[in-house]
């Protein structure tokens, strides 16, 4: 299975590989896909799985992660959903805009974060059924926190949002417990 992330630097690729064991693609703006679409303005892409099967992944507006969408895939296959194909550059720009909105919504939402034993991803939470994690930056010239949803980078935060709460008394037993759950397979 491939990985989707918004940043293409080498450290990001290492982090994604560490979080999702067995992924074949390092981080990038979007995984290589067969086709890119935006029906009703929502970013979607058709990808090939390792077994060669085609799958439709749609951006989850609550988390900013790409998730399998079987209902939309069936509607596409049956010709019930029309969408003009996008080039990769246009698609990546659309994904950045959607993730910026998602990040703003996450910052304003009351989310309870639990401490983990992972020094790179010290806090984990869940939103809309998807695992979230915060990564601390090493380079202080960058934003201090990066939000990940289901293993995909959503965006960077300048500081801890006022709506968020930390449960430092409770520490997750596993390092980066949020990463232990595999991405939704299609």
Walk me through this protein's architecture.
- It is a single chain.
- This protein has 186 residues and is of the alpha+beta class.
- The chain has two domains: 10-97, no CATH class; 106-180, no CATH class.
- It is 23% helix and 27% strand.
- It has helices at residues 10-19, 70-77, 88-108, 177-180; strands at 35-37, 44-48, 54-59, 66-68, 112-115, 123-127, 130-136, 145-149, 152-157, 165-171.
- The strands form two sheets. A six-stranded mixed sheet has the order 9-8-7-6-5-10. The chain has a four-stranded antiparallel sheet with strand order 1-2-3-4, sandwiched between helices.
- A hairpin with a 6-residue loop joins β1 and β2 (44-48).
- The chain is elongated and about 50 Å long.
- Residues 1-30 and 174-186 have low confidence and may be disordered.
Beta-strand portion reads 25-35%
Q: What is the CA-atom radius of gyration, in angstroms?
A: 16 Å
Distance between the termini: 10 Å
Name the shape in a single word: elongated
In short, what is this structure?
With 186 residues, the protein is α+β, with helices and mostly antiparallel strands. Helices cover 23% and strands 27% of the residues.
């Amino acid at each position: 299975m491939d990985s989707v992330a918004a940043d293409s630097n080498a450290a990001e690729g290492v982090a994604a590989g560490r979080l999702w064991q067995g992924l074949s693609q390092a981080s990038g703006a979007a995984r290589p896909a067969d086709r890119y679409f935006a029906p009703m303005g929502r970013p979607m892409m058709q990808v090939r799985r390792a077994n060669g099967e085609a799958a439709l992944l749609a951006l989850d507006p609550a988390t900013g992660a790409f998730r399998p969408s079987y209902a939309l895939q069936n509607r596409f296959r049956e010709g019930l959903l029309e969408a003009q194909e996008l080039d990769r550059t246009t698609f990546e720009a659309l994904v950045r805009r959607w993730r910026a909105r998602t990040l703003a919504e996450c910052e304003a939402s009351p989310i309870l974060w639990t401490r983990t034993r992972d020094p790179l991803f010290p806090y984990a939470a869940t939103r809309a059924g998807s695992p979230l994690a915060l990564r601390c930056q090493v380079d202080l010239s960058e934003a201090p926190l990066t939000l990940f949803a289901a293993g995909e980078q959503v965006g960077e935060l300048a500081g801890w949002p006022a709506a968020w709460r930390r449960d430092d008394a409770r520490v997750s037993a596993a390092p980066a417990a949020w990463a232990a759950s595999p991405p939704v397979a299609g």
